[in-house]
Amino acid sequence: MELTKYIALAALVSMADGHGAMVSPRSRNSIDYTLGIPFKKTSSPCANVTGAPCNNGQAAFWYSQGCFIGCPTCDHISGRRQTDLCKLGAKPTINNPKFRSLNRDQEAQSKFDIYQHNPWRWPGNAPVANPCGLAGGTPWGWDVSEEGVYYNTTYAHHGMAGTDLPELPTGVVWTLGLEAEVTWAVKYNHGGGYQYRLCPAEEELTEACFQRHPLEFVRNKQALVFANGTRFPINGTFIDQGTVPEGSTWSMIPLPPDGQGPRCGCR
Fold first, then answer.
1. Residue 162, SS3?
2. Confidence band for 45, pLDDT divided at 50, 70 and 90
3. CB under 8 Å to 220, separation ≥6 — which residues?
């Protein structure tokens, strides 16, 4: 299975290191869309390739934080930090400025390379709290450092594991060995990149299961999608060395990042 991918943009506004979510096929994380109500800060802007109205619920607010390369677990607190959090000395595998989404002018692994411990610098190595994310980014309540906002609904509550959400059938059928079109959207782009994976329906939803089934990209078919369905073709940036699973392909987010959090005061 190879994927033709599109990034859906809400009008002209802008995963890895950001809040992103599938738009088509729809993910279970978007289940709140069925309630048909706005969620203030947690709505997930998106665009449909048909130009029809797009509602993705609170899908972009299921994520993990405090997860750094070389660490066995996430601490759920240290979001947007630039540090070797677990002090295990892991070194980034992505050092070429072409493949770094932030701070490209600094020498790789120098003291000024402040993002070298972030997940994108060793794609797939950093742990996750849950393969389908946590509502609001932590397993606890609201009052913790760097917590994300998530409005409790009849389907989910802040701190809930995404794997506990009910299935959300889409009716989409893919044929093994053929290309499939997918779209995703990003709300807060902290830089980095992403990968598409599958986990067989008969297996438990675990990170190990998803890592066993990474999908390949159709590298010459990428586009930005605007709210009216218009597509703007772009050239993607792909990485298949120094990745996890080994040899699998990741794609860098092709939009300038923002919201980077605290910066280093190096001297």
1. helix
2. confident
3. none
